[in-house]
Amino acid sequence: MRAVAEYAIRGKRQAVIVAVVAALVPMLFWLSAATIVLTTLRKGVAEGLNLMLWAGLPAMFWLVMGADPTPIIVIVGAMILAVVLRATVSWVQTLLVGVVLGLLISLLMPLMVPELLTPEVLSKLAPKLEVDSEQSAAVIGSLLTGFWAAAHLLVILLSLMLGRWWQSLLFNPGGFGEEFKQLLLPPVVAVPAILIAQFGGNFHPAFVGWAPVLMMPLFIAAIALVHGVVGIKKLGFPWLVLMYLLVFLVGPYIALVDSLMNFRRRIQRAAE
Q1: How far apart are CA 176 and CA 186, in angstroms?
Q2: What are phi and psi of 203, to 5 degrees?
Q3: Which pLDDT score is estimated for 124?
Q4: pLDDT in tens, 184-232
Q5: Position 22 confidence tier, pLDDT thresholds 50, 70, 90
Q6: How far is Cα 5 from Cα 239, in angstroms, rounded to an integer?
Q7: What mean pLDDT is predicted for residues 41-59?
Q8: In whole angstroms, how far apart are CA 56 and each of 18, 31, 48, 73?
Q9: Which of 7, 23, 207, 246 could form a disulfide with 32 if both were Cys (CB 3.0 to 4.6 A apart)?
Q10: Domain boundary assignment for the chain
Q11: Over 60: is that where the pLDDT of 129 sits?
Q12: Confidence (pTM)
């Protein structure tokens, strides 16, 4: 992967080649998005935007010919978050914008993939999810759009992290790892996210679809906590695997407690 980053950062022509080819090859659009992120973070918004326009051509091809909106969503989304990260130098603010972006993506789903929200599909899913028949269409439709948006937001965030890791690898070794390990969501962000995700569906079906998107920053924060604790305590690989399993099971709640307790600061103080 380093070789790809080194080639892309050499100049505009090389970056365009990587971004366009990756966007054209099926399932490699994330590599195109990461290249755009690297260019934006290192060379500025103007060059990143120019590269996004080039990569957008094959992405639009897939949208028009294959009815697949994922490449264009991921490429544009990664560009937006790269601009935010470059301007704010804050992963918390970038994740918050990511949530807004995820909610906007959920609104686009009925337009881009309407076949997933047909009455036939919703009626087939209702018995499996044990949803009340009177509210089944609204709740199931909200769930589908929420998970669809969250999946796209996850790929966008992973592309953003890959591009930032490339930048760190080439120009500031270890920089991304250190800043990621310090990621901590403030309570004003974590608490409302959990409350809306947990109880929002009781007030309106739309909140059911918000839950997967709202959980995404909490999962990312939980992963940052894991790497931070492992680094501070100098734990081995088996501990990392075990803690990742814990994140997979209850990650958002771990991030919530961490936002209130700041485990890394407590562990560092105890070690001093």
Answers
A1: 20
A2: -105, -35
A3: 66
A4: 999 999 999 999 998 988 888 888 889 999 999 999 999 999 999 998 8
A5: very high
A6: 31
A7: 96
A8: 13, 13, 12, 10
A9: 23
A10: 1-115+122-172, 182-272
A11: no
A12: 0.93
Going 147 to 149 to 150 to 152, the CA torsion angle's sign is positive
Whether the CB-CB separation of 71 and 23 falls below 8 Å is answered with yes
Tell how far CA 244 is from the center of its chain.
Answer: 17
For residue 231, the Cα-to-chain-centroid distance in whole angstroms is: 23
Question: How would you class 100 by CB atoms within 10 Å of its CB: exposed for 0-12, middle for 13-18, buried for 19 or more?
Answer: exposed
User: What is the pLDDT, as a whole number, of residue 67?
Assistant: 75
Count CB neighbours of 83 within 10 A: 19
> Is domain 1-115+122-172 given the CATH code 1.10.1760 in the classification?
yes
Return the percentage of the chain with pLDDT > 70, whole number: 91
State how far the Cα of 203 lies from the Cα of 267, in Å rounded to an integer.
39
Token output for 21: 């080819």
**Which positions ≥6 away from 62 have C-beta within 8 Å?**
29, 68, 70, 71, 72
φ/ψ of 238, rounded to 5, equals -60, -35
The radius of gyration of the chain from alpha carbons, rounded to an integer in Å, stands at: 20
99 with 60: CB under 8 angstroms? Answer: no
- Which pair of structure tokens corresponds to residue 199? 């109880």
